[in-house]
Amino acid sequence: MKKINALALGLFVFALSAFGPVPAAPAADVEITNVSYDPTRELYEQYNAAFKKHWKSLKGQEADIVQSHGGSGRQARAVIEGNQADVLTLALAPDITAVEKAGLIKPGWQSEFPLNSAPYTSTIVFLVRKGNPKAIKDWGDLARAGVGVITPNPKTSGGARWNYLAAWAWAHREYKGDEKAVKEYIGKVLRNILVLDTGARGSTNTFVQNGQGDVLLAWENEAFLALAEKAGEFEIATPSLSILAEPPVAVVDEVVEKRGTREIATEYLNFLYSEEGQRLAGKNYYRPSNPDIAKEFASVFNLKLDLITIDDPIFGGWEKAQDLHFKDGGVFDQLYAR
Amino acid sequence: MSPHAKKNIIPGFGLSLGLTISFISLVVLIPMLTLVFQSSALGWSGFWKTVLDPRILASFRVSFLCSFIAALINGVFGLILAWVLARYRFPGRRLIDGLIELPFALPTAVAGISLTALYSDKGWIGEPLARLGLKVAYTPVGIIVALTFITLPFVVRTVQPVLEQLDHVYEEAGRMLGASPTLIFFRVILPEIKPALLTGFALAFARALGEYGSVVFIAGNMPFKTEIAPLMIMIKLEQFNYGEATAVALVMLGASFVIMFIINSIQARSAGFV
User: Fold this and answer.
1) How high is the ipTM of this complex?
2) CA dist B34 to B37, B206, B209, B212, Å?
3) CATH number belonging to the domain at B44-273, selected among 1.10.3720.10, 1.20.1250.20, 1.20.1540.10, 1.20.58.760
């Protein structure tokens, strides 16, 4: 059964990549394209249906939304190279900044929508095997001898950078900023990694389908999806501290000007902040940014989890963190080489 | 017109040579030159620093060694497969014949994911092997398995037609003169099929060197152990590091060219004897 699933997944991935964006349904009055990243597939499927109803009652128009998914960085590059996206809903702010630098989005996009243009957030949690046989509860446990860690490679996967930085943040607190101790801890975790896949879905496959390792470092929403798919085989362990990921959204100015779709594109993103949009995010295991709606999901998410952002003084923003940790020969490479 | 040109069956030597050169230039030479140009931005010291990095060197070793072993495995088993397909008639022969090309048709990512599921220590084939102490997926052995799968058709398809056309009279003559089957194989059959076998081997080896899609799933991608050179290129590209990426590519290209050149010379020499 396991193997058949893996094969089916493989064929599914292939089928999706072969067809690309779903062809437009006929008889739509207006059409926009949402270029997004991989794990939001289920969320936007539901959200688009809700938004179509909303737009119909607002304007009386039939709206059609073309949806495209892929690795966040690759999607950004596709838009720079000419993929006509009206809105971007990507994983990392630097990916949208790259589109901004290409001149397609006006500077200041991050203050165009509330809360740094991040309608929902997510964080990094541990997915462990049923009963948590290795008793993995917090980041410190990942450095223990005999614990097999599964994570994608931070050099090829945007998501994996959050894993690494979350571990760093925890160690920074634990060792009270002693950089040598932090690096020693990270080095131990890196040596416990069994498989270093190139992307988040690949790692999930390695851990869930192929049974490798004791703990998967995963996006909270990915971890919940794996739980839902394989009931009773896994558990989620929430560490004492993690990192707050704020997947941002933006209107692609150049495209909406040309197509005359600014109004619907803006409303499409604004509707994400509505109660209905927030609830859909929560149902798909993204943390709603509206605190009242988030409370409705208190039984799902550990809302007391201590979350720090990339702008915390430990990291000093994306650009600095990227440069210090992930460029060739950076801290990540140094720690891995040892 | 030179006397050589007169012998040509297809007319228009000038036209066809011109086409050949433009085609080769557009499809092979110009893209290759762009590689050199891209990496020249690094300068000599930057180039050497990139390609002599211990992690890059380790990835070269993994890539060349695994590709060589995979090509060798296919050299032996591809020859046996080709032999069976060419020499025997049995029910299901056409089916097996059709299956040979399947690795070409299957998207490599699908091959990688399925092979990993089968050969991981929880998989159908991987589990019994793991109990015997042989871990396949997430080790260099896994890389060899994927590469063997991907490059299977080359040796079979180059050797099979030669075997089919090989006249039986030489073997019969050998037998009547009292040669043992082993002797006949090594002294009569092998020299005939050696050029085709070498071509198949070289094609398989070259294809394996460049393979990325299936290997990244089964390799585990651990630095110094199971990272292949194409992955290092991808990692550098992801960081917009085009210069260093092309430097790694250039070394692979140069090394492959030398190896292919050697194999082709051996082949040309052994073909000359026939």
Assistant:
1) 0.74
2) 5, 20, 20, 21
3) 1.10.3720.10
